Amino acid sequence: MKEIGLEMDLEAQEKVELCRSVPADLQMSYIQGTDLFGYVGIEAVLDQMRRKTIKAGLEFNIMVVGQSGLGKSTLVNTLFKSKVSRKSCTPNYEEKISKTVKLHSVSHVIEEKGVKMKLTVIDTPGFGDQINNDNCWDPIVKHINEQYEKYLREEININRKRRIPDSRVHCCIYFLPATGHRLRPIDVEFMKRLGKIVSIVPVIAKADTLTIEERHEFKERIREDLTVNGIDVYPQREYDEDPEERVLNDRIRESLPFAVVGTDKEHQVNGNKVLGRKTKWGIIEVENVAHCEFANLRDLLIRSHLQDLKDVTHDVHYETYRVRRLNESNPPLISHLPAYPARPITMTE
Amino acid sequence: MLKPKVLSTGRDNRVRPLSLAGHVGFDSLPDQLVNKSICQGFCFNILCIGETGIGKSTLMDTLFNTNFENFESSHFEPQVKLRAQTYDLQESNVRLRLTVVNTVGFGDQMNKQESYQPVVDYIDRQFESYLQEELKIKRSLHNYHDSRVHACLYFISPSGHSLKSLDLVTMKKLDSKVNIIPVIAKADTISKSELHKFKIKIMSELVSNGVQIYQFPLDDETVAKVNTTMNGHLPFAVVGSTEEVSVGNKMVKARQYPWGVVQVENESHCDFVKLREMLICVNMEDLREQTHTRHYELYRRCKLEEMGFKDTGPECKPVSLQQTYEAKRQEFLVELQKREDEMRQMFVQRVKEKESELKEAERELQSRFEQLKRLHADEKSALEEKKRLLDDDQSSFGKRRAAAQLLQAQSLTANGKKDKDRKK
Question: What is the bridge-based pairing of β-strands A200-204 and B94-104?
Answer without folding.
Answer: unpaired
